[in-house]
Amino acid sequence: MDLFSSARRLERPYRFTRNDRSELPLDARALIGDGITCALVRPDGVIDWMCMPRFDSPSVFGALLDPERGGRTAVTPVAETFTSLQAYDPGTNVLETIFQVPGQGVARLIDFMPWSDDPRAGIHEIHRRIECIEGEVELELVFDPRFDYGRDPATLDCGPHGVRARGQQGEQFVAVATRASWQPRAGGGVAQRIRLPARTTHWLVLAWSGADPEPLAHYRSYEHLRATRRAWREWSNRLVYDGPWRHHVMRSALCLKLLTYAPTGAMVAAPTASLPEWIGGGRNWDYRYAWVRDSSFAIRTENLLGYNAEARDFFYFVRDAIDLERGLDVMYAIDGRRVPAEVELAHLAGHKDSRPVRIGNGARDQLQLDTVGALVDAAHLYERFGNSLTLASWRKIRAVIQALRRHVGDPDDGIWEPRSGRRHNVHSKLMSWVALDRGAGLAGAFGEDTLRGELLLEAEALRDEILERGVHPDGDPHFVAAYGEPRVDAALLTMPLYGLIDARDPRMTATVDRIRAELGRGSFLYRYRYDDGVPGDEGAFVLCGFWLAEVLAMMGKVDEAQAVFVDHVNASNHVGLLAEELDPSSRAQLGNFPQAFSHLGLINAAMRIDLALRLRDEGSRDIPHLVTGPHRRPAGK
Q1: DSSP code, position 386
Q2: What percentage of the chain has pLDDT greater than the value 90?
Q3: Which of 15, 95, 286, 595 has the fewest CB atoms in 10 Å of its CB?
Q4: How far apart are CA 427 and CA 545, in angstroms?
């Protein structure tokens, strides 16, 4: 296998018949967005997930969670069978779908949301350009919004310029097309059929607004398409990575930009809610929020890629969201407020009958001590990449560190947010060490030498404790998930990534071997294998596989690292997107989609392996580090 020719063929076709479209796999979708919200577009031209007016608003199109009640919009060939090809315009998030219809011809659908990288310019529109390339193609256009997660089917009014949908809470959504010939549709909403001869074009514009539909020309679709393509290409040209996986890194960076809420800089974990970690199971969570844990990953990644402004904005978001009276939350809503309480939507069937459907997130109330380490590491990285913390920022960070010092010996819920009780999780102890270690460096930068000395001593003591109590209780030379317990979990792979221990230390190599033996399925890893208080199965966790690739590269096993990396990259969908998890047997993607963690992991692993390859070519035996602490002293052998 040529490890550098790992790109999935974007021209991979999807074949449709009239009766099988609802059975599309989860990953048979692409993403478009405008920095405020986004939409999932299937290869058959159906948009079955979109929240308006922002990521965490109630869904307007939610057929992804219930084909009958959720609502959708579509531009789809009428034919009984057709073939679809879908890809992004290079360097952009403008999506192109080609329909090949037997006996009729070929049509192209271009989907985009106007975007300018200016959060004040959001206009909350989807523009769909339909062009017949050859022959004459008949298509059906559908507009069937269901407000408030399908609880409000909307009142539809057809007029001379388009159709207006009104919700009971005052929401208003309009659909404007080249021809305003909308008719009521069986099953809900309105539809129209069009026949396009070769070299003709039709537009459909969907606008979230408080006004009646305007003539199509007023929406200036051609101008927005040109401006959006130009803006995306200008943004993409700032990417500084030129390694062998540039295509995948670029696509991941573009995805992460789509997951960033422009007004605040917050990055949502995923744009979807309640997609199952196993089909038919109950592990269905709402990920449309910003986790503090993601901040250090994102700040490192975006700075290394050349996107310093995005890294800065995410850091500011986390900094500004901290409420010293309440303490540091695990996650925040995208405007910095508290995440809503978790509730179940009993009226929705769930994706492929996976119940319950949840919105909000109950993990907001957990104690996750690793979050403090992520925040302090984010501040450390902010400075390492050429910025200077303000005194006001340092005061907030110092207060969070001081609070951690009082609880560093406590058990917590941990990174994976189980619902089975608290443990002395080794990953949480690791991240507490990160908080103390990086905090010492920041304290020194602000001239607080006494605090710096105290934090250094506490960091060293905690590091010694981890190395002593974090190993197998029966004396096996490997680390474990929690003090006194024999099991492992994949979060242990981050120990060398944060610099607590050398990747080639025998205890770490034994840990990698045990993780692969207990949690591995080929190149893929499950997070853990124990009762976490939630019934049902889950898939292999994509981020954990990329962590494995990074650690293998740091151990000098560069060829193994490449093999693991390529297997994960090849599990991406037809447009290069990755969900949270996957089924190792079928490679079917699972969980919320697309997942920021997965794409952050891809970028970091690509850069780590690229650096390891260059060092190997130069004959160096140094282990490549992308993150180090100011006072890091890796444990020796």
Answers
A1: T
A2: 85
A3: 15
A4: 17
In this predicted structure, the answer to whether residue 637 has a pLDDT above a threshold of 90 is no
Phi, psi of 542 (to 5 degrees): -60, -45
Q: Which CATH architecture has domain 14-214?
A: Distorted Sandwich (2.70)
H-helix segments, 385-492: 391-407, 426-445, 449-469
CB atoms within 10 A of CB 140: 15
Helix (H) or strand (E) holding 483: none
Q: Where are the domains of the chain?
A: 14-214, 238-617
Of the pLDDT bands very low, low, confident and very high (cuts 50, 70, 90), residue 323 is: confident
Q: Tell me how far apart the alpha carbons of residues 137 and 148 are, in angstroms, rounded to a whole number.
A: 35
- Interval 197-205 mean pLDDT: 97
Helix (H) or strand (E) holding 48: strand 46-51
Are 485 and 511 within 8 A, CB to CB? no
Burial class (CB in 10 A: 0-12, 13-18, 19+), 383: middle
First CA to last CA across the chain, in angstroms? Answer: 35
Per-residue exposure over 572-607, b if at least 16 CB sit within 10 Å of its own CB, e if not: bbbbbbbbbbbbbeebbbbbbbbbbbbbbbbbbbbb
The confidence band for 624, taking pLDDT boundaries of 50, 70 and 90, is low
Sign of CA dihedral 172, 176, 182, 185: negative
Note the pTM of the prediction, 2 decimals: 0.95
- Amino acid identity of 400? V
How far is 514 from 507, CA to CA, in rounded Å? Answer: 10
Rounded CA separation 408/582 (Å): 34
Report whether the peptide linkage leading into residue 594 is cis, meaning its omega lies within 30 degrees of zero.
yes
CATH fold for domain 238-617: Glycosyltransferase (1.50.10)
Name the CA radius of gyration of the chain, rounded.
Answer: 25
Q: Is 292 left (phi over 0), alpha (psi -120 to 50) or beta?
A: alpha
